[in-house]
Structures are given as C-alpha cells and as structure tokens.
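WARN no homologs supplied; continuing
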Amino acid sequence: MNQRGSVEGYLIAGAVVIGMGAAIAVQTYRLDSLRVEYAEFKAGVEALGDAAKKSAKEKEAKDKANKEQADAENARTTANLNAVIAKLRAQRTSSGALPAAATTSSRPDLACFDRAEYQREDGVATAKLLGGARSLADEGTAATVNLNTAKGWATR
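OK structure emitted
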C-alpha cells in the first residue's frame, strides 16, 4: 500500500503540475494576446492623436491666413470709406450750411433773417451738432465695416 499510495501521490502531484502548467500556458497566451491588443490600441490612439494634431495645425494656419486676408480687406475698405467721407465733407464745407440765395432776390443778403448774424449765432451750435452727428455716423459705419469683415471671415 505504501508503494501504491506513493504512486497515486506522484500521479496526483503530476496531474496538479500538468494542470498548473496548462493553466500557466493559457494565462501566458492570454497575457501575450492582451499585450498585442494593447500595442495595437496604443498605436491606433497615437495615429488618431497625430492626425488630430495635424488637422488642428492645418485649420489654425487656414484661420490665420483668412484672418490676415480679412484684416487687409477691412483696412482697404475702411481707408476707401474714409477717403469718400473726407471728399464728401470737403465738398459740403465749401458750399456752406445754408443754400444760396435765389438769383431773383432783391436782397440776397437776407433770407427772413440776417444771414451773417444767423451764421454767427447759430454756427457754433450747428458745428457741434454736425460734429456729433458725423462722429456717430463714422462710428456706426466703422462698426458696419468691421461686422461685415467678421461675417466674411467666419464664412470662409
């Protein structure tokens, strides 16, 4: 019985060793499989990250170029607008604030009031009013140009 018990013990021990060896082999295979899968996943994520970085840099460069173009267009439009405004105001200044007296008038220096006195008394107030109105108009026009430029840049 001793011999038989020791053989059974060896057989059981051998079966346990073989079972453990098989379990270790299966776990090693699974671990290697997971390592390969992880390496593939990591490479895929890195590739996606690199592609996203490249795309972001391209978009940033495109946006920068569009902004520079929009800024140049805005500067051109604003300069043209200011030149036209200056030209129109120069024409208006030379003609005076009051219309010319009628050619058939017996006294062109009077128009229901003394022209020189009216211009002297009302000239300062009129100049302030016109200056304020022009300032508001210029501010509104500049805001419109800037808004149109921004809308154009945003749609590119």
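Residues 2-93+109-154 form one domain.
OK
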